[in-house]
Amino acid sequence: MEQDIVALTSKAERSAVQTMRGTAVEFRQISKSYGSFEALKDFDLTIRPGEFLTLLGPSGSGKTTTLMLLAGFEFPTSGRVMIGGQDVSKVPSWRRDQGIVFQSYSLFPHMTIKENLAFPLETRGIARKEIALRTQEALRMVKLEQFQERFPGQLSGGQQQRVALARALVADPPLLLMDEPLGALDKNLREEMQIEIKHIQERLRLTVLYVTHDQEEALTMSDRIVVMNEGKIQQVGAPVELYERPRTRFVAEFFGDVNIFLGSVEASEFRADDESFTIPVCTGAPEGSACGAVRPEKIEMHKWGERPAMNDSVEIGGEVVDVIYLGQMSRYTVRTAGQDVVIKCMAAPRTRHFLVGDAVLLSWQADSFVLLEQGATT
Q: How does DSSP classify residue 352?
């Protein structure tokens, strides 16, 4: 494990590497405008040393702008960008100690793979022997040693992306920036690369800022996720926190299927607008109009007339109106008195398969219901 780290550093740097190589990053009251358009508004964020932090959001949410500010390709309209405690807000990209990987591989087509990796080291005036060592170790990390004499055009898309990653790592940066790096790959290769990138980051203890719009990718790779929309942070947290306990309707709906129920809170109890159910919520929850969320996999479905063996559960009846077989699970849509409800059931040999038209009873535990922030119901 330590061999990968040591081989990519000079002798003078090795003692420091044994502790924590990643660096802290801070965005302090950042605003970024393009004419009258505000891409970021009062943006505050801290990235911890050695953390894999992902910016997640729809197109136009400000995530790539954030990465460009950290990379030094853009400068803030106001506020400060800090790396390792130093203000780099006006420092150009080439003076920042960081690696960058984009969706486009940006490899030099006339250079061999080995030459592509050696180039950024040569521009730094590093000794030839050290360049050869770092290049070999970087290629070994991404499992491409046997392709070092080939040209980029002779490699597959996945292999070229590995080369781009190796080139970003070969100069031994404490900070790695990645902007949609896997977007051009097919699903299986993308999933394989997600795991490899995460393992490399953990071995090298790098600080990583990763940009994606892919929810599964963010959940798989991240220590923490920053959900963004319209230039602002919606919520920051560990993957399980954002999925299981979203604060707003936007965050709840951004992470895949979710059932949203409109209603109101009174005396620490949520009552659905259609009065199909009531459910206790945390003491002191603000009273008035509200909405709550339940993930499809938290809901159990039973044939009408069967009583589920669940304590402290909510029960509502309905009719199956749609069935989609997804291999490992089936996705059902059930029409209740108030709305359509989505349920996901794992497919197993003994699992009952419901059909369109079946009368069913839905139930879920009270603690599976998440009350969302008021003012975030749309």
A: P
Q: Specify whether 223 is located in the same domain as 284.
A: no
170 in helix, strand or coil? helix
Number of domains within the chain: 2
| 3-state DSSP assignment of residue 3 | helix
Whether 111 maps to a domain, the answer reads yes
Give the C-alpha distances (Å, rounded to integers) separating 13 from 121, 122, 320, 346: 16, 18, 64, 51
Which helix (H) or strand (E) is 237 found in, with range? strand 232-237
One domain, residues 109 and 228: yes
Residues 199-249 pLDDT 10s: 989 988 999 999 999 999 999 999 999 999 999 999 999 999 999 999 999
The verdict on residue 249 lying in a domain is: no
Query: Do 88 and 40 fall into the same domain?
Result: yes
> Exposed, middle or buried: residue 182 (CB in 10 Å: 0-12, 13-18, 19+)?
buried
Full residue range of the structural domain in which residue 350 is found: 254-371
Other C-beta atoms closer than 10 Å to the C-beta of 315 total: 15
The Cα–Cα gap between 180 and 184 comes to 9
Strands, E, within 305-350: which ranges? 313-325, 329-336, 340-346
Model confidence over 121-130: pLDDT tens digits? 988 888 999 9
Residues 6+ apart with CB under 8 A from 90: 75
Distances (CA, A) of 281 to 98, 285, 371: 46, 7, 7
